[in-house]
Design a protein that fits this description.
The chain contains no helices and 10 strands. By secondary structure, the protein is mainly beta.
Length: 111
């Protein structure tokens, strides 16, 4: 089920955090006319990425300054790290985030 929020809740200098029905946090960023939704936790040590610095289409982790591409979720270095990304659509004054691929935080880790 998609999450809807007002487009005014997100600005280039003020990202937003939304939660899925299962409690998974998603950070929403704006750069120019584009909106990006990513998992709100850095896979390195769990830093809240919404508190990071947004530099164009890159968010910089507030703990160790890892840089994540907002479009792909790939970390610039180390390249094996990646965060989940979610499609964002703007319809009038609202943003709709497709959370169908959001993980269940209560599910056991694979392995």
């Amino acid at each position: 089920m998609p999450i809807t929020l007002p487009a005014t809740a997100v600005t280039p200098t003020k990202p937003a955090v939304v939660q899925t029905e299962r409690g998974f946090e998603i950070a929403v960023f704006q750069h120019g006319d584009s909106y990006f939704a990513i998992a709100n936790r850095c896979p390195h040590q769990g830093a809240p990425l919404v508190q990071g610095v947004c530099d164009g289409e890159v968010v910089i982790c507030p703990f160790h300054h890892f840089k994540y591409d907002l479009r792909t979720g790939r970390c610039r270095f180390p390249r094996h790290l990646r965060i989940a990304t979610f499609p964002v659509a703007r319809a009038g004054t609202d943003l709709s985030i497709d959370t169908s691929a959001a993980p269940d935080p209560s599910a056991p880790s694979p392995g």
